[in-house]
Amino acid sequence: MVPRVRQAAFAAALALTATGAPPAAPTAPPSAPAPTLVGAPAPAIHAKPIGGSGPTTLAATRGQVTGVEFWASYCPPCKRSFPRYEELVRDHHGEVAVLAIDVDPPDDLTDAQVMQLVEQYGGSFAVLRDLDGAAATAYGASPIPAAFIIDKTGVVRHVHRGYGLDEPQKVAAEVSALAAR
Question: Which of 60, 74, 163, 167 is deepest in the core (most CB within 10 A)?
Answer without folding.
Answer: 163
